[in-house]
């Protein structure tokens, strides 16, 4: 009888879901917002870099799929709560260098831009920018050049990183986004905004003080994640929310 009870107890333990692995005693928890952690999104996926002094540890958020009930029945959706998986360790490396390398490795292939050859091409490739200055169209050629130039930004890199911007949906509110600031030839500062600028900076290998030409290319859809928690954003039906993301290209000029 005792043997049967032990057997049933062992069987019950085996059928129980395994708890998440606990960190060894004294180990530092991951994703707590500690001062030695940097959390960024690369390719729409949360990444975390932790400076441990003698090494930099790179973690990536992993979302295991699981059956989830929706109004359309059971769907296999990513688990809303990710876990941090070690993607690599870099002894003796600098935090900024490891982050730049990770962004560069996930950057999309370079997109070659061709100058428009006619009026139709110039109009289709143009998208007006907020606050862009327009000179009076003295002749058709001047107008075409001005339209094309409105999507191109030239200057010296003065800053890049997270910055606050006014939130047009909330009066007096702000939101945080990645920004690139260029000092133009006239001394004015042009501020460009978008997470896609990270990929373009890494691909071009830019540094502060470089003279560059920046182009905004096209808009793509990427999965949306909560900035602080790294969890995916889901709609009321449990489906992944998608955000618009602009792709950029940067070329260093001499």
Describe the 3D structure.
The chain is α+β, with helices and mostly antiparallel strands. It has helices at residues 2-15, 95-105, 119-125, 140-149, 196-204; strands spanning 37-42, 45-51, 55-62, 65-70, 73-78, 83-91, 152-166, 174-183, 189-193, 211-223, 242-252. It has a domain at 150-252: OB fold (Dihydrolipoamide Acetyltransferase, E2P), CATH 2.40.50. It is globular. Helices cover 20% and strands 38% of the residues. Residues 116-148 are annotated as: Disordered.
Itemize the secondary structure elements and their pairings.
Layout: H1 2-15, E1 37-42, E2 45-51, E3 55-62, E4 65-70, E5 73-78, E6 83-91, H2 95-105, H3 119-125, H4 140-149, E7 152-166, E8 174-183, E9 189-193, H5 196-204, E10 211-223, E11 242-252
Antiparallel strand pairs: 1-2, 2-3, 3-6, 4-5, 7-8, 7-10, 8-9, 10-11
- Proportion of strand residues: 35-45%
Q: How are the strands of the largest sheet arranged?
A: 9-8-7-10-11
Mean pLDDT, rounded to whole units? 71
Globally, the shape reads globular
Q: In CATH terms, what is the architecture of the domain at 150-252?
A: Beta Barrel
Tally of DSSP helical segments: 5
Keywords: Plasmid
Region (Disordered): 116-148
Offer a concise description of the structure.
This protein has 254 residues and is of the alpha+beta class.
């Amino acid at each position: 009888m005792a043997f049967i009870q032990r057997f049933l107890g062992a069987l019950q333990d085996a059928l129980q879901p395994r708890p998440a692995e606990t960190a060894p005693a004294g180990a530092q928890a991951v994703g707590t917002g500690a001062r030695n952690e940097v959390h960024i999104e690369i390719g729409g996926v949360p990444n975390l870099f932790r400076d441990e002094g003698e090494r930099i540890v790179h973690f990536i958020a992993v979302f295991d799929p699981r059956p989830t009930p929706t109004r359309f029945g059971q769907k296999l959706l990513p688990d809303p709560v990710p876990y941090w998986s070690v993607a690599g360790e870099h002894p003796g490396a600098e935090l900024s260098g490891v982050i730049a390398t990770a962004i560069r490795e996930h950057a999309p292939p370079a997109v070659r831009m061709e100058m428009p050859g006619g009026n139709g091409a110039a109009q289709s490739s143009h998208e007006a920018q907020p606050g862009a200055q327009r000179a009076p169209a003295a002749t058709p050629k001047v107008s075409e050049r001005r339209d094309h130039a409105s999507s191109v930004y030239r200057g010296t890199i003065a800053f890049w990183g997270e910055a606050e911007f006014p939130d047009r949906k909330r009066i007096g509110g702000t939101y945080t986004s990645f920004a690139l600031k260029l000092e133009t030839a006239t001394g004015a500062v042009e501020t460009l905004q978008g997470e896609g600028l990270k990929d373009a900076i890494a691909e071009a290998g830019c540094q502060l003080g470089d003279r560059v030409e920046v182009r905004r290319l096209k808009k793509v859809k990427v999965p949306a994640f909560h900035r602080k928690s790294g969890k995916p954003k889901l709609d009321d039906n449990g489906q992944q929310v998608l955000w618009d993301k602009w792709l950029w290209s940067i070329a260093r000029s001499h």
